[in-house]
Every structure is written in C-alpha cells, then in structure tokens.
Amino acid sequence: MKADPEPPEREMAATVREIRASVQRHSTRFEKAIPLIASENLLSPYAKELLISDFHSRYAEGLPGERYYEGNEEVDRVERTCLELARRLFRCSFADVRPISGTVANLAVLKALAEPGDPVGTARLADGAHISSASFGAFGLRGVKPVYYAWDEERMTLDVPKTRAILREARPKLCLFGLSLFLFPIPIEELRPTLEEIGAHGWYDAAHVLGLIAGGEFQDPLHEGCEVISASTHKTLPGPQHGLLLGETRDPDVERRLRSAAFPGVTSNHHLHTMAALAVSLAEHIAFGRDYARQVVANARALGQALYERGFDVLAPGLGFTRSHTIAVRVVREGGGEAVARSLAEAGIITNKNLLPGDSSPKRPGGIRIGTPEVTRVGMREPEMVRIAELLDALLHKGRPPAEVRADGERLKADHTALRFCFGAGEAAYRFYDLVGRDPGS
Ligand SMILES: Cc1ncc(COP(=O)(O)O)c(C=O)c1O
C-alpha cells in the first residue's frame, strides 16, 4: 500500500522554509563578500521598513488628488513629498515617480517622444549602452531605429565631431545619452547646438549616475541641453528598485506626453511601497548625498589607480580611469571577462563580465566592470580600495588560492557591514528581518 501523500500544507511549509533559508544564505554571503557590481547598492533602514508597509497592498492609479480609487490620502501626501524632493534634488520643474524601473522609464520616454519607425540616437551596446537601446530591448518594443553615435575609445565617451555629422545626416527626433558602462560625462553641451539645429529632444538615461548627479559629482544633464532624464533609483542613488522621470522643458506638451506615457502608458499601479521608500532615499540624499557621491568617485579612482599599479589594464589611465563610480578593466591577459568574473566570485569578490569597446565578439567580453557604490555605502575609503586591489592581484596574478583570498576579503569586510550616509547609520546593512519569529510549519 502506498503511503498517503504529504498534505499540501506540510509540503508547502517545507517549500517556504527552503525559500527563506536560501534568502538568508544569500544575505550572509553578501555580508561577507566584496560586492563591486556598479549597478547595485544597499537601502537605508528607514527606506527598507516602508517596503513591508501597507502601501505595498494598495492601488493608486493616476496622480495625487486625481486617483481612480478611494483611500489614497496618505499615499497622495507621500507622493507629493516624493515629487517635491525629486524636483529639489535635481533642480528641475518636472518629475514623475510612477515608472516602476529604469527600463519602464525608458519605455515611457520612447512612447512620449518617438513614434514607431523614427530614428533615435544612441551609443552602441559595445560602447556601454544599456540593452534598452537594443532591437531586443525597449527600442525594439517601440519599433524605433537606432542611429549609432561615434565613439572615442581613448576618452571613453562620444566622438563629438563625428557624432555631429551622423546626427546631421540621420536627423533623429530623439537622442538618448546615458550608459551602463559610464566612466565619463557625455559632451552634451558640445552637441547641444546640433540637437537644436535638427530639432531633436535630448534624453539622458541617468540610471547609473543619478546619485552622482544629485551629489554634484557628475554632469548636470538637464542644465546642459537635455529635456528629460529617465533613471532607475537604486544604483548610485541608494534607493529602492524603482524608476523616475525628470524634466526641464519649456514645452508643456512634452510634460503632458511624459505623464500620460508613465500612466496609463507603461504602468497601471506604480508600486506605492517603493515610491514611499524612494521619498525617504531622496530626503537622505539631500542630507548625505554630497559626501557619499564624493567618496564613491574618490574610491573608484583610487581602485583604478591601485589596480593599474599592480599591472591591470584599467581603461583610460591618462584620464584618471573614471569620473564616476565605475572602472573598466580589460582582463584578456587574465583569461577574459567571463572566466575572471567567475573566479573572482569564487573568491568572494562580486563583479560582472562586460563588453568593452573593440571586443571582437559580443559573446566573449574582454573586460570586467567594477563599481564602488556598495563598498562606499558600508564605509570603505581609499585604503580599503588598495586592499581590494591587492586581493585581485593575489588571485589573478600571483596564483593565491580562491579560498585564501576569500578569507582575506572576509576579514576586510567584517569591519564594513553597517550602513553609512543615511538616517539610522550604523544599522546592519545585510540583516534578514525575521518578521514572524517562528517556523512556517509550526
Ligand atoms: C543605463 C541603464 N538604463 C536602464 C537600466 C535599467 O534599469 P532597471 O533595472 O531599473 O530596469 C539600467 C540597468 O542597469 C542601466 O544601466
């Protein structure tokens, strides 16, 4: 005779237990690791607590004061504050906090300011553009045709004279500036007369550098010639996973089109818990963002220098390696992007393989991308950047076993597990919050 099947409750309690255990192991792993992903960061405790608030359970379609559902008074209050803080931080007249991610914000701009079939300017993926610009990404979804800018590999930014010629020839109506491998500011001011000449909207994807712009450490796109910024809010701006639109335009029709693209174009409800967390993160960035952004960039430059001194092929050595949170390292000699990123992860150092300009195959990235937002958030400074470079050198040049490098990294990280640059500084950065306090099967 067959035994009775497990009642689903018991089976599913075991599943929930496994999911929780996995997430707990993940938190512990990151607490001990050296996380150097340029697009990641850590949320402050006051932002984090809002993610599990009742805002998570509600709908608030539309704008504050003009909702389709009842019960939104406090949501309206928080969203108005969020909008005010965004306009203040970026010194602009327009903000919309309804896109739920950077990609969704990009889709909103494409919906508002381009029609299917239109030519739209962008950098190439190999030069650092985000997959939004690809035919298999947001550009393809909207059916627009990419017009590729010319790239200056030495300076790791757009080649202005050649790009001017390309723009005059193709006359795109919309020009996207902004990258996922974003080392140096984009020469928007130099391109501005050409944008005006051809009547193109300037659009800046600030997903990576949002917190640096707000902290006064990078360019200021809305005051250099772009009308609209799209962004995600969790990279150098250490906020929740969310999206954002900002604008400085003399054309009220552009604002109207952006608003209606945000809702009902690309969102229905806009994830009110993350919107509230974003409001806290924006307030914290007004209070602490300048110091944070300064240290993020100083750390990236220090790490670039320390790696370069240890024989790594860090891009743009003549320009101080970077003006942002990111450095790019060509690791062909060390085995290529994929193998290097993997062996670093084995040693507890988290990076990602990355295509670099001039790579011969998109399937074999020649580099890794390294970012300092998270290690800065937990209080690391220039001396720790030198120690991180020593870890990479030991693993990739001196043949030290991954387990030993990992142990050294863990010792370094042990002093840097608390949040900085936020209210509630000193709180544990990687804590798993056990809300219920007992096992799901009990
Ligand atoms: C330049 C750029 N834009 C947009 C995005 C997408 O943001 P999200 O992941 O919030 O959709 C990214 C993500 O890394 C990015 O690098």
Helix-strand layout with pairing:
Blueprint: H1 8-32, E1 34-35, H2 45-48, E2 62-63, E3 66-67, H3 73-89, E4 94-96, H4 102-113, E5 119-122, H5 138-142, E6 145-148, E7 151-152, E8 157-158, H6 160-170, E9 174-177, H7 188-198, E10 201-205, H8 210-214, E11 228-232, E12 243-247, H9 252-266, H10 272-309, E13 313-314, E14 326-330, H11 337-346, E15 349-350, E16 352-354, E17 367-371, H12 373-377, H13 382-396, H14 402-414
Parallel strand pairs: 1-15, 5-6, 5-9, 9-10, 10-11
Antiparallel strand pairs: 2-3, 4-12, 7-8, 11-12, 13-14, 14-17, 16-17
Bound molecules: pyridoxal-5'-phosphate (PLP).
Structure description:
The chain is of the alpha/beta class. It has a domain at 47-282: Type I PLP-dependent aspartate aminotransferase-like (Major domain) (Aspartate Aminotransferase, domain 2, 3-Layer(aba) Sandwich). Helices cover 42% and strands 13% of the residues. The protein is built from 14 helices and 17 strands. The chain has a 7-stranded mixed β-sheet, with helices on both faces. Strands 13-14-17-16 form a 4-stranded antiparallel β-sheet. A two-stranded parallel sheet has the order 1-15. β10 (201-205), α8 and β11 form a beta-alpha-beta unit. α3 packs parallel to α10 (272-309), α6 runs parallel beside α7 and α10 (272-309) packs across α13 (382-396). The longest helix is centred in the middle third of the chain and has 38 residues, at 272-309. The chain is globular. The mean pLDDT is 97. The site of pyridoxal-5'-phosphate (PLP) has 15 residues, from α4.
